[in-house]
Each structure stands twice: as structure tokens, then as C-alpha cells.
Design goal:
334 residues, Purple Acid Phosphatase, chain A, domain 2, 16 strands
């Protein structure tokens, strides 16, 4: 049963942390039930660094300041990709400058540990124009700046297992496509097999494995009849992934970004959340074609029984283009 509560009970600066809330815990679950194991923050699509979107140098620090001020602090930030504005379509000099601008913000405003997922905009300038001979072609610059040795990896934290996937691959009509390469599939199956059966699992990816938001993209990103979803939007190998997931009922939650929208769906016992965007519409406005979606991030509480609660928080970004008459969704504010 989806739990839709309007209020965080944790105080922040004398106020209450409110937001859209959903999860896998039963509504009205007794307070003496399973204890919370820990909390983490979910950042998606920060798109920092490009001079055309100068508000990122002000907006991203505001988001970081906001999450650091939560009284009941998260243990870490899980970032689901598109860290910088865009390296894929940029030249080397621009991509390098964007990473430099991002590092400056992080050094000055972030003390929380951060776990990174790579997004399509973090890929080196058009897959390095074919000149990259490293182990993970096209991703060397992102790996260097995030300190990762591989774009996919896993880790354990306080009784939960996290798997971070790399689902941006060469090909597709737009220069990239969303799926897992064969080496990564083999690694994923091995990682899941060696994870204890009773340890709950969270899977992070940039683009969603399953989502609702894909049906609300502009028609320009779809087939002319509006019903065919582009292969650069969601996993085209979803049936294969579902067959893997079906062998591991301890997979509880899949987190993603990519769409700059917020959605939550459940399929075959797994919850899928697309967590919006810290930058909204590239720091210019609420999402232009779906203006209900503000700049925000997720706060996730994980419990000892494998359940979770997810809240999307509008951190109060102001100063960008807005329309007072636009449709508004009741996101929470401090």
C-alpha cells in the first residue's frame, strides 16, 4: 500500500520538512514496528557548470546547503547522474571547464559522502570521437572527476546492498541508448547471487528501468504516433532485466533520474522511482513541458524490514523564469 503522508516529523530550523511522500511501508504502520536503518538523499540531474545556465553556480549550492541542514542528517548523497550540464555534445575544453566548476561547488559546499552514477550528459564529448582506448571508452573524464574506477559497482551500508548501474551505451538514434552491455549483465548477475538473500537491495541507474514519466515526454522525442518510447529514454532490455530481478525478491527499490519528473510505480514486487531534477529545467525554469515539476531532491528512509519511505523535497529555488499562473503540484517546502 502506498503511504502518502504530507509531513516529515523531523524538525529543521524550527520548521517541519514537508514533501510528496510515497514508499513501501503500509499506511498507519505502528511506530513500534521495524526501526529505520538510515537515511540518504537522492540527487538527480544537477547539470552544473555551463555558463549558459549560470544559476547552477547559485542553485546547486542552495540545494547542498538545504540537505546539509536537515536535522536528522542523511548518511550520504546518492547521485543518479547528469552531474554536469553536458559533456556529450561539448568540446573537450568545455567539458573540462564544466567538471572544474562542479568540483569547485562540491569542495566549497559539500561535506557529505557522495555515491555517483554516470548519466548520458557525463559521457565524454561524443564518446571521445572514437579516440578513447581506456577500459570504459567515453567515460574516463567522468570517472576521473568522481573518483570512480568503474561506472558500475556495488556497496553495502547498514544492512542494505546498493547496486549502481551504468546504462548509457553507444548507439541509438541520438548517439546513445539505454541498456546494459554484456559484461555488466554478467557482473550484475554475479553480484546479486553473492548478496545474502535476506539483505534488501536498492538499484540506482541514470535512466529508468521502468517508469511512468516516459509517457509524458514531448512528442518531438517520440515516434510521430506518440506511442513509441525512444531507446535513449528507458531500458530497451527491460524484459531481460526483469527476468534477472525475478530471481531475487530482495530487490526492493530502483532509483533513477533522466526525465526531470517525479514518478513512482510498482511492477512485480519492485518499486521504481524517478526522482526529479535538482536543476528543474536546466536551472532556467520549472520543467517547461511539464511545469508542475520544480527543482528538488529526494530524502529516503530505509527500514530494517526492507521497506522504505521516499519524499521529494522542493528546496525553494528562486530567481529563475517562472509563471505564477502555471499548474502547480503541492511539493513540500521548508
Amino acid at each position: 500500500m502506498i503511504n502518502r503522508r504530507d509531513l516529515f516529523t523531523d524538525a529543521l530550523g524550527g520548521g517541519a520538512l514537508a514533501g510528496l511522500c510515497f514508499g513501501s511501508r503500509a499506511a498507519g504502520a505502528p511506530e513500534q514496528g521495524p526501526q529505520r536503518a538510515f537515511r540518504f538523499a537522492h540527487f538527480g540531474d544537477t547539470h552544473v557548470g555551463h555558463t549558459a545556465f549560470s544559476l547552477s553556480s547559485e542553485g546547486y549550492p542552495k540545494a547542498l546547503k538545504h540537505v546539509h541542514a536537515i536535522k536528522d542528517a542523511p548518511d550520504f548523497i546518492l547521485h543518479t547522474g547528469d552531474i554536469i550540464t553536458d559533456a556529450f555534445w561539448a568540446k573537450r575544453e568545455s567539458a573540462t571547464a564544466q567538471w572544474k566548476a562542479w568540483r569547485k561547488v562540491m569542495e566549497e559546499h559539500c561535506t557529505l559522502p557522495v555515491r555517483y552514477t554516470l548519466g548520458n550528459h557525463d559521457v565524454n564529448f561524443g564518446w571521445d570521437r572514437g579516440d578513447d582506448t581506456t577500459k570504459f571508452p567515453g567515460k574516463s573524464l567522468a570517472l576521473e572527476n568522481t573518483g570512480l574506477t568503474s561506472p558500475y559497482y556495488s556497496f553495502d551500508h547498514k544492512g542494505w546492498h546498493f547496486i549502481v548501474l551504468d546504462n548509457t551505451q553507444p548507439g541509438g538514434w541520438n548517439g546513445f541508448q539505454i541498456l546494459l552491455d554484456e559484461a555488466q549483465v554478467a557482473w550484475l548477475e554475479k553480484d546479486l547471487k553473492r548478496t545474502p538473500e535476506k539483505m534488501p537491495v536498492i538499484i540506482a541507474s541514470h535512466a529508468p528501468i521502468v517508469c511512468v514519466a516516459c509517457f509524458f515526454e514531448p512528442l518531438s522525442k517520440k515516434h510521430p504516433d506518440g506511442m513509441v518510447i525512444s531507446n535513449d529514454c528507458v531500458h530497451q532490455d527491460v524484459v531481460r532485466i526483469q527476468s534477472i530481478f525475478g530471481k531475487h525478491p530482495n530487490i526492493k527499490l530502483c532509483l533513477s533520474g533522466h526525465y526531470h519528473q517525479v514518478d513512482h510505480c510498482r511492477y512485480l514486487g519492485v518499486d521504481y522511482i524517478c526522482g526529479g531534477a535538482v536543476c528543474a529545467d536546466y536551472w532556467r525554469r520549472p520543467l517547461q513541458y511539464r511545469p508542475e515539476f520544480e527543482a528538488g531532491y529526494g530524502v529516503v528512509d530505509l527500514f530494517t524490514d526492507g521497506t522504505f519511505e521516499y519524499r521529494f523535497i522542493d528546496y525553494g529555488l528562486v530567481g529563475y523564469e517562472d509563471d505564477p499562473k502555471r499548474p502547480r503540484h503541492p511539493w513540500g517546502k521548508i
